[in-house]
Amino acid sequence: MAKKQSPFVKRFLEIQRNTEIKKYIFGTLYYSLNLVTFLSALYVAIIAVYFIAGNNKNYPGDVNPYRLEFW
Prior knowledge:
Helix content: 55-70%
Number of helices: 1
Distance between the termini: 80 Å
Mean pLDDT: 87
Keywords: Membrane, Transmembrane, Transmembrane helix
Strand content: under 5%
Largest sheet: none
Number of strands: 0
Structural class: mainly alpha
């Protein structure tokens, strides 16, 4: 015969289970947002490097290998 649990213990176990699920959901969202932030910062940095390299006027013969067709 199983021992009956008090309502307090049942509620505690329910909250504990829900908290465990939320921990994984919010942890995944947190690290996903960090990854998106890192990748967008990297993308902006790459664009900045190409812009600065493309506007450099110090190449001999006025041939800049970083200047793209649309700049």
